[in-house]
C-alpha cells in the first residue's frame, strides 16, 4: 500500500485497502479467540476423553497444566512473537500465530482419547494447549499493531476498535457453534463424539484466514522504519531492559491493562460463572443470555473506539473503570433477584453459622477446581459456598469438628483425613443432612427421581427417613428388572452387592435423588437479566474498545509489537485469568457470594488512580514521531 501523508489520510474516508486490512486482521483474530475459548466451553467433555482414566493426583496435574497453558503462558507468547514481529514484520508473524492456533485446535478434534493412546493422549493435549496460549500471546499484539500502523492518526481508535470486538465475537461464535452442534446431534452423541466437531471446524476457519492474510502487505510504519534502518536489533532488551521503555510498559500494565482485564473478565466470564455456578441457572439458558447480551453490546466496542478519536482514549477507559467500581455490587445483587428470586429471598432471611476450632478454616484458592479441602471447617464452608449460602464463622472449642447451624438445625461436619476409609460415608451423611436443613430453611433445592436396585433398597430407606418409605410397599409397586451388568456399568451397583444375581428389580423413587440448588426457569426474569448482562458488557466495551489504540501509541515502531503485547497479556492472562478463582475463594472465606467482587473493584481502583496520574493522552499522535 502506498504511503500517504498525514494531511491526506486524516481528511478522507476508509480506503478499500484499509477495509481489507481491518477485515483480514479482525477475522483471523476472531477465529483465534474462537479456538481458544472452545477449550473452556468443552472442558468437561475433554476431561472425560483425556483425563478420567487416571488417578486423582494425575488428573490434578493435567488440569493444572491445561490451566497454565491457557492463561499463564500467554505473556511468554507475547515475548516470543513480539520480538519476531519487531524484527521480521507484523504480517508474517501473525500469519504464523494463526497457523499455530488453527492447527493446534484442529488436532485436538482428531486426537484419540486416553482409552486409545494412554498417557500420551493427555500429554499431547497439554502441548497443543501450550501452543494455543503461545499463539494467542502473539496474535493480538500483531493484529492491533498492524491495523494501527495502517490507520490515519485521527481515526486510529475507530480502526483498532474492530480488533477489540474479536475476543467477544470469538466467545460468541464458540457459544453459538457449541449450541448448534449440541442441538443437531443430541446431548448423548455430543458427549460421546460431537464435542469434537467445533474443533474440526477450525480447519475451515484457518483456511479462510490464511488465504485472506496472505494477500496483505506489510504495514507502512514498519516498512518506513526498515527503509530508514531504524529497526531494533534487540527488541526485548530495548523494550524492558531500558528504564525509559520499561517504565512505559509498567504504566501500561498497572495504569491500563490490569483494570481493563478485571472489568473484561468480570463482565464476560465471571457473570457467566456467577449465573451458572452461584445462581444455579441451567447452562443452556446462561449461554443464550450471555450470547444475547454480547450481541446487543458488542457494537459499543466500535462506538467507544470512534468516540476515543474525538475526546481521547483515557477519559473513556477511566470512566468505564469508575462505573464498574461504583456499580458492581448493586448490579450483581440485582442479577440474583432477576435470575433466582427464591435464592435472593432465602439469602435475605437465612444465614448459616459455622462454628470451628481455631486454625481449622483455610483460604480456599482453587484456580483449577481440583484442590481437596479435608478440614471439617473447610468441608463445611466449601459446601455452603458451592450451594450459594451466606454464612458466618464463629470460633469454637479446640479439637472439635466444625458444626453448621441453619435455622434451628445443627449439623456436625467431619475431618476427611481422620475419617480415612469412612470419609465417603460421612460425606454422604453430611451432604444429605445439610441439604435437608437448607431445603427446610427455604433455599430452592430440588431432588430428581432415584433409581434404586433391590439390593440397596433397605439401606436407601434407612438413609432417607424424610421420604417416609416402606420397603414392602416399594417392592410391591412398579419395578424394572434390569441385567446386573447394566447396573454395574451405570454405577448403580457393584458386582459384590449383586451377590451373584444376573438380573435385579430397580425401583424409581420420586424425589429421592441427589439434591441440587436450582433456579426455577419460570421465575427467571429474562429481560432484566439480559439487561444487566448488557450493562456489564458495555463496561467491557468502554475499557476495551480504545485500549489497542492507546497501547500502540505508547511505544515507538521499532519495539511496538513487543512493548504493547507483554503488558496486555500479563494484565489479561494473569490479573484477568485468575479472577474467577480469586473471586470464588474470597467469597468462600467471607461466606458472602458478593464479597469476591472486591477483587475486580480493588484492581480497577488501583488502575484508575495510576491511570489518572501517570497515563498520558495519546489521541492523534503520529506513530512515526514516537521515540
Automatic annotation (TrEMBL):
Residue ranges crossing the lipid bilayer per the database entry: 61-80, 92-111, 117-137, 158-181, 193-216, 248-266, 286-307, 316-335, 526-552, 573-591, 597-615
GO MF term list: transmembrane transporter activity
Protein's UniProt keywords contain Coiled coil: no
Locations listed in the record: Cell membrane
PANTHER family: MAJOR FACILITATOR SUPERFAMILY TRANSPORTER (PTHR43045:SF7), SHIKIMATE TRANSPORTER (PTHR43045)
Domain Major facilitator superfamily (MFS) profile: 21-619
Gene Ontology terms: cellular component: plasma membrane
SUPFAM superfamilies the UniProt entry points to: MFS general substrate transporter
Protein name as catalogued: Sugar transporter
Gene3D superfamilies: MFS general substrate transporter like domains
Membrane topology label: Multi-pass membrane protein
Keyword Transport: yes
Record keywords, A-Z: Cell membrane, Membrane, Sugar transport, Transmembrane, Transmembrane helix, Transport
